[in-house]
Amino acid sequence: MRRLVRSQTAQRLKKLETELKVASKHANADAIHDVRVSIRRLSRALRVFRAWFDAGKVKSIRRRLRKLMEGCAAVRNCDVAMEVLLAAGWQAPELVTGLEKERQHMRQKLALKLESWRRRDRVRKWRGCLRAGHSLAKDTGEYARRLFPAMLEDLFRAGRDAARMGSSHQRMHQFRLKTKRLRYTLELFETVYGESTKPMMGSLKKLQEKLGAINDCATTIEMVRRDRGAAAAVRRLAAQREAEFRSFWKKHFGTRELSRWKAVLSAADGNN
């Protein structure tokens, strides 16, 4: 188990370091998105493997990651709003120009933050802080079997609530976060499960995309709320996306699927 913790954490540190270098040179939408995903994956590893690390050091690292995520989100939200308005068929040059100006401003702030991280070489320094110590849990299969059942029950329960007619965007957003947590946690145990969890992660990724499309609408509505026409157009698009999510959930996440997933995850074996 200690070997798994070390390898998975090292991979995520290396990935974040790479994405930060790219984003510091080219802070485009794709590069910022990749930094955000790397932050989420590292944060999840620190959460799942917290028993192997110094709690104070992990708390400090997670706090810095959250601040960087906020800076990335400010830029990303402008990109999202422009994409959603286009998808909603709303033509408003002045509104788009305003969003572009806001994006440029937030991008400049993010560029300074990324440059500061590069100069300080933060991620490389974290490697020394995140050398996995010992924990009572030694067998990877045993640890996985204890970890996943509650996460699965929580996910399907939250999904049923989010898929109900009239469910709020906030509830759907919270469900989306649970989807990400399960998917990124499964990734940490790929060496334990092998190919058996690939279909599961594929379904979670698609579900995450459906929910992400709804969340993009919610973010955009908040950003353009003063423009009633734009907000109304985005609400119509959101309603379409919500219907697509409900259909997908009903088709791919029934009671049978929960039982099947439990069976797969209860079969974890290994002593890595």
Please characterize this protein's 3D structure.
The chain is mainly α. It has two domains: 2-129, CHAD domain, CATH 1.40.20; 140-266, CHAD domain. It contains eleven helices and no strands. It has helices at residues 2-25, 29-48, 55-87, 93-120, 122-129, 140-162, 169-188, 190-193, 198-223, 228-252, 255-266. Helix 1 (2-25) crosses helix 4, helix 1 (2-25) packs antiparallel against helix 5 and helix 7 (169-188) runs antiparallel to helix 9 (198-223). It is flat. The N and C termini lie close together (5 Å).
What can be said about this structure in brief?
It is built from eleven helices and no strands.
CATH class of the largest domain: Mainly Alpha
Distance between the termini: 5 Å
Tertiary shape: flat
The CATH homologous superfamily of the largest domain? CHAD domain
Tell me the quaternary state.
Answer: single chain
Question: Portion of residues in helices?
Answer: over 70%
Mean pLDDT: 91
By secondary-structure content and strand pairing, the structural class works out as mainly alpha
Number of strands: 0
- Which stretches are low in confidence, meaning pLDDT under 50 for 5 or more residues running? none
Number of helices: 11
The major pleated sheet works out as: none
**What percent strand?**
under 5%
The CATH topology of the largest domain comes to CHAD domain
CATH architecture of the largest domain: Alpha solenoid
Order of helices and strands: HHHHHHHHHHH
Number of domains: 2
